[in-house]
Amino acid sequence: MAQLQPVLVDGQWRPAKNTGVFSPLNPATRQPTGEVFPISSREEVEEVIEAAARASEALLGIDSEARARFLERFAGRIEARRAEIVALAHTESALPVKPRLDEVELPRTTGQLRQAAAAARQGSWTLPTIDTKAGLRSFFAPLEGGVVVFGPNNFPLAFNSAAGGDFAAAIAAGNPVIAKANSSHPGTTRLLAEEALAALKEAELPAATVQLIYRTDHQVGQRLVSHPQVGATGYTGSRHAGLVLKEAADRAGKPIYLELSSINPVLILPGALRERAAEIAGEFTSCLLAAGQFCTNPGVVLLLKGAETEAFIGLIVEKFRAAAVGTLLGEGVEHNLGHSVAALQQAGAELLVGGAAGGGTGCSFQNTLLRVEGRRFLATPEQLQQEAFGNASLLVVADDEDQAEALCRALEGNLTGTLYTDRAGSDEALYQRLAPILRRKVGRLLDDKMPTGVAISPAMNHGGPYPATGHSGFTAVGIPASLRRFAMLQSFDNMRPDHLPPELRDQNPTGQLWRCIDGAWTEGNVPAKT
Amino acid sequence: MAQLQPVLVDGQWRPAKNTGVFSPLNPATRQPTGEVFPISSREEVEEVIEAAARASEALLGIDSEARARFLERFAGRIEARRAEIVALAHTESALPVKPRLDEVELPRTTGQLRQAAAAARQGSWTLPTIDTKAGLRSFFAPLEGGVVVFGPNNFPLAFNSAAGGDFAAAIAAGNPVIAKANSSHPGTTRLLAEEALAALKEAELPAATVQLIYRTDHQVGQRLVSHPQVGATGYTGSRHAGLVLKEAADRAGKPIYLELSSINPVLILPGALRERAAEIAGEFTSCLLAAGQFCTNPGVVLLLKGAETEAFIGLIVEKFRAAAVGTLLGEGVEHNLGHSVAALQQAGAELLVGGAAGGGTGCSFQNTLLRVEGRRFLATPEQLQQEAFGNASLLVVADDEDQAEALCRALEGNLTGTLYTDRAGSDEALYQRLAPILRRKVGRLLDDKMPTGVAISPAMNHGGPYPATGHSGFTAVGIPASLRRFAMLQSFDNMRPDHLPPELRDQNPTGQLWRCIDGAWTEGNVPAKT
């Protein structure tokens, strides 16, 4: 048996205090990758939390420049070890090396770290607010205690718990991270954490600013997110496991930001189909890329009854049949996809194509399309809104516009919602009827574009109403907004000038920090009293 | 028996569908005020929620100017009915007519409504963010469904569920309000809701934008905060009742903003005592105003052992003994205060003065001071941090600076934390040791000032870590930040220009809306593409 991999606790790679072990599989071969990882005990988790709490306090006295430097050094180190990281991520996830891992996801990861560095350095994410008359000044500041990050299976780099979006946001905001690796790519996470530790030393940050464990049992996981010395948790993953953690965190009054599941409804209005059915079919089918394993994969397509709709459905059935079947991220994904497709069928959906495991290399499932009539959907909307994570989508055909509106109203919270309309304007009246309803069910509303891509932009919202996430006021992607999840609002009242944090003193510390002074945003100083 | 007061549902004052009744008491006489109010049934609550949900959808199509007009008309109408409102609030709360209700709290209430109107009109609270390169635009927008507001007992006007801070914030952000009156001042709440309804008509807003019920049983209350069609809840009140509601809301994934309890530690460092003990004693004792019934009343004072401390304690004991005993807000407050003082004594605190019910007119409790040594406090920190809401405070005397630091570390989350230091600078080293610890336990840190006043300022934070509130990222006081509790983040991706909300179009809708365009805050338009 291979040697048990160490955990990273308080700056040391050390043998785990574990209660068990696990061995990840290569999804393309269904064979073990050859590495063995520990399941951490409660004792180990307590040590990690305490070390993070000490680092959290130390970070309060270290300026943001050091955090920015760390994030940049870390990005550089990931690039320097690029081939090894990409190769192991490929072994563990079966995602293609090129273009996906090497040309898309790794640059996204390092770009995100550098954006987070810039945000930390500039500081405007803290929304400094100064009321000169009342003698009050406020901003967002780091939490007390470390931030726990649970990364998902589907982005081994860009959402990795030791290098991805939540990691970058938590560190940039001034918090240490306790990374809980996703069990499907623990080796990739270890490589990233190795570089993080080296970069911490270079930037002279506390060694416990980044720690790594691989897995815990449920009870220890609940302790982790509800511990008095933990600041907050970021979790991306299955709804079931997420809700177990949410309950524990909620009971303890600890913030937990969840990205749980989303079926990302796409409404294709009749004029759009008449105008460009083939083009839209192509866009839709391109979502089979990476076997549809995206948080924002279009899982439900809403259409209105008619000849064009039937022709469109025929077209995408053909395309789904013809498209190569991708390898899934693991046996769990394969199993769950089969389970979800069966559940949708039990709830009344009809199978148009696919529906069975296999068809590709290793873990795989046939490209699958299901169909259900609007009336049927409305009878059991909850069952028909189960996420089928992977290369499967459900088409819902509404009888008429009234039913289409009713379907929109029956939708749960989602990350995205999309409306395709014709350029000529014949869909406009229906758009105006449906968009206001859809808009409040989703975190991001799109016109004429599949929702799969998630740009790292200040105006991105990768969020949405429950059950897509745990709170519709926050985004997991998009800097600087994503940083504010891992921060607390602090107000300073009647403070002596030298007792104020630098961001809130009269003089703008860099001349580049945006602050709202007496109601106006400015990069200037607080005006001298007259 | 007096006639049962009606409820306000969907624009109509109508007989309640009730399961019981209650009769509030005048705390100054312990006699019924003469009015009788209904306990609403689940059926009634469902009707209220549905009407609010319809109003929520209608409000999405009405511009913010109408909401601003409503808030201003409402403020004007409160002023026009001032004498009657103040008189009933006095009867129900026993708070003095002058200066408190008439000269302080009523103007605060109308000022707050007008500030909220200005925020709604200007719109900058929505943090519009535009990324011209990525084609993404985001802002904060109203929730789907009404906002439930549970007001506290201690501010019958300024935190009233039908006119106070949460009400103003929720409406300004574009949400209808379901007001759940505090059972200690239902009549005052009814008068306010009458004026709100009239103002709604004048402003031509949906009639269900403001609704009022008075009380429910626990189960119906839990349904109210967890209903699928409710957007969020704002609650200010006791920790116990708040946590019951929090659990129900959390389970349903519904945001709930809680202000639960706070002991507001005040640390008086040795140099400050040497320099100005009498002055500080005066400031501290002035917190007996309104019988200490403030969320930010200084409930715990931390001192360091020494002769000056003993002299200071002697001074405030005298002042507490000499000060008039105020009337409490009701029998519940009187009972709970007795219970809390007894619990503190059981946990090892020694009674210095007071400790028994009575001493004032009607519901009252002697001005009470307790003392405990630092070592004892550290042995059972949870028991000794129970809030004693009213005119009671606990003095904690630390052996030395190390113990003072340990005491700071043992503090739970609070709304405020205060440090008094000397002007000469002899306390500075200890300040630098304690302030960073205290800072992250509290929402607002103060220098040399009692925390009782809560200015309505953009830089105020009336919030803090759990258990002071449910989430340290939000404030209940301070416009515009308080509005963002009742909003969701929405991103618009690839939208046709005329499909965008006005706030996110190229042209700044008013020339006064602050927007972050490509990283810079501006009141200008989106620059034309070159």
Secondary structure tally, helices of chain A = 14
State the CATH superfamily name of the largest domain in chain A: Aldehyde Dehydrogenase, Chain A, domain 1
Distance between the termini of chain A: 76 Å
So what's the CATH class of the largest domain in chain A?
A: Alpha Beta
Strand content of chain A: 15-25%
Report the C-alpha radius of gyration of chain A, rounded. 24 Å
Topology, number of strands of chain A: 23
Report the largest inter-chain contact: A-B, 78 and 78 residues
Q: SSE layout and pairings?
A:
Two copies of one chain form a homodimer.
Chain A: E1 7-9, E2 12-14, E3 18-22, E4 25-26, E5 31-32, E6 37-40, H1 42-60, H2 64-80, H3 82-93, H4 97-122, E7 129-131, E8 136-142, E9 146-150, H5 165-172, E10 177-180, H6 186-203, E11 210-213, H7 218-226, E12 230-236, H8 239-251, E13 256-259, E14 266-268, H9 270-285, E15 300-304, H10 307-322, H11 331-346, E16 350-353, E17 368-373, H12 374-379, E18 392-398, H13 401-409, E19 414-420, H14 428-439, E20 442-447, E21 487-493, E22 515-517, E23 520-522
Parallel strand pairs in A: 7-22, 9-10, 9-12, 10-11, 12-13, 14-15, 14-19, 15-18, 17-18, 19-20
Antiparallel strand pairs in A: 1-2, 3-6, 4-5, 7-8, 8-21, 16-17, 22-23
Helix pairs in contact in A: 2-4, 2-6, 3-4, 3-6, 4-5, 7-8, 9-10, 13-14
Task: Briefly summarize what is shown.
The first copy, chain A, has 2 domains: 37-123 and 133-260 and 476-482, Aldehyde Dehydrogenase, Chain A, domain 1 (3-Layer(aba) Sandwich); 266-447, Aldehyde Dehydrogenase, Chain A, domain 2. Helices cover 37% and strands 20% of the residues of chain A. Chain A contains 14 helices and 23 strands.
